[in-house]
């Protein structure tokens, strides 16, 4: 079962980023996720939502990427919009925006305008293509960004179309996480020198950066530039997935010899242990492994390999994952106000992150933010904190 939220130890509710103010200009995808991560770690994140919202077209109550934030409603195209954003930026440590290049400048809230008001500000820019280059002003999505970096070509079966890995690889790994690393590094610099700066976080840059090891292997002759021909892309029979009797799957990652020996023993193919080092026998080995897994259910094989060093795990769905015994014991997922969701990560021994607020309703915190940040906000009267 998903762990129930128990809260951090007394006195540590604010997380390691307590006291850091983040202004998020609302968008979709990697920007909100980056802001959520900062909020999970204790930053005071104020999201500027625009009337009508950019959103995911789901009920805002379920938009988990807006948890732990506060929201104010502001039309940046109105007369009051840009001056209000600049007033908030003057009191912020970090600003995050995900517009196409030039849009923030046209709205009057670009880096030059904001840094003039607050020279210590870290201005984080989240885009797919980056702030310059031939494609900088064109539209795009995760799939296109990972396509041109070579990352998408790593997925799928030979001779078949590559597989879209949701938007985890580009938007969140190559985008959000690099934006967070960038703005926190720039914040350290700003606090040391008093000088802010612009962080250009492009998904194509971050995703390309993720392939660093593979480029090294490619240059050394240890990686073939084609699918299912390498150690880590399913080319080796001891690193891949196999169907079980109930049409579920098991993931096998028995790379090292000692783990491989444990795997073959528990699977019941110990007589083929030596085939690992002979690529000519890999087709035979793959067939033998597949046939064994098809003889029993995923639950059976999960029990066979439980607690072992064989490096085998069941392939679980999103709904199943919170119930995995290890994840449940660690509280990797938690339930907050009726929504099962990933708990804040990573973990800190002295200042753990926490789920303090549910997903922010657009404009719900206008009075509260106006009071705490000392900024007059349009529509402030009558708003509920």
Beta-strand residue fraction: 5-15%
Largest pleated sheet: 6 strands, parallel
Radius of gyration: 24 Å
Shape: elongated
Structural class by SSE content: alpha/beta
The H/E string reads: EEHEEHEHHEHHEHHEEHHHEHEEH
What's the number of helices? 13
Helical content (DSSP H or I, runs of 4+): 25-40%
Stretches where pLDDT is under 50 for at least 5 consecutive residues are 1-12
Spatial order of strands in the largest sheet: 4-3-2-5-6-7
Give the CA-CA distance, first to last residue: 33 Å
**Mean pLDDT figure:** 93
- Tell me the total number of β-strands: 12
Task: Write a structural description.
The chain has 385 residues and is of the alpha/beta class. Helices cover 33% and strands 14% of the residues. A hairpin with a 5-residue loop joins strand 8 and strand 9 (249-253). Helix 2 crosses helix 4 (111-117). The radius of gyration is 24 Å and the shape is elongated.
């Amino acid at each position: 079962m998903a762990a129930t939220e128990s809260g951090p130890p007394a006195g540590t509710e604010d997380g390691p980023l307590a006291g850091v103010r983040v202004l998020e200009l609302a968008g979709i995808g990697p920007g909100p996720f980056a802001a959520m991560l900062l909020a999970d770690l204790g930053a005071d994140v104020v999201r500027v939502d625009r009337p009508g919202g950019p959103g995911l077209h789901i009920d805002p109550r379920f938009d988990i990427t807006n948890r732990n934030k506060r929201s104010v409603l502001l039309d940046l195209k109105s007369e009051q919009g840009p001056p209000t954003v600049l007033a908030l930026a003057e009191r912020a440590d970090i600003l995050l925006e995900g517009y196409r290049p030039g849009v923030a400048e046209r709205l009057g809230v670009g880096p030059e305008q904001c840094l003039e008001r607050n020279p210590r500000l870290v201005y984080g820019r989240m885009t797919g293509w980056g702030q310059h280059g031939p494609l900088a002003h064109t539209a795009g999505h995760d799939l296109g960004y990972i396509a041109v970096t070579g990352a998408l070509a790593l997925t799928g079966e030979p001779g078949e179309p590559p597989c879209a890995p949701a938007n985890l690889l580009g938007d969140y790994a190559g985008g959000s996480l690099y934006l967070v690393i960038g703005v926190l590094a720039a914040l350290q610099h700003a606090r040391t020198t008093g000088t802010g700066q612009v962080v250009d976080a492009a998904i194509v840059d971050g995703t390309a950066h993720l392939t660093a090891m593979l480029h090294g292997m490619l240059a050394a002759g240890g990686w073939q530039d084609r699918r299912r021909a390498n150690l880590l892309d399913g080319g080796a029979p001891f690193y891949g997935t196999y169907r079980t009797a109930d049409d579920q799957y098991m993931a096998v990652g028995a790379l090292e010899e000692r783990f491989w020996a444990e795997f073959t023993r528990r699977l019941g193919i110990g007589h083929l242990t030596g085939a690992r080092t002979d690529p000519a026998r890999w087709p035979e080995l793959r067939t033998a492994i597949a046939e064994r897994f098809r003889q029993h259910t995923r639950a059976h094989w999960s029990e066979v390999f439980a607690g072992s060093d064989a490096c085998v795990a069941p392939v679980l769905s999103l709904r199943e994952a919170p119930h995995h015994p290890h994840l449940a014991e660690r509280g990797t997922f938690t339930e907050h106000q009726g929504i099962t969701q990933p708990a804040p990560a990573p973990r800190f021994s002295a200042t753990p992150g926490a789920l303090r607020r549910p997903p922010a309703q657009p404009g719900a915190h206008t009075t509260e933010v106006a009071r705490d940040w000392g900024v007059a906000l349009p529509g402030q009267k009558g708003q509920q904190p």
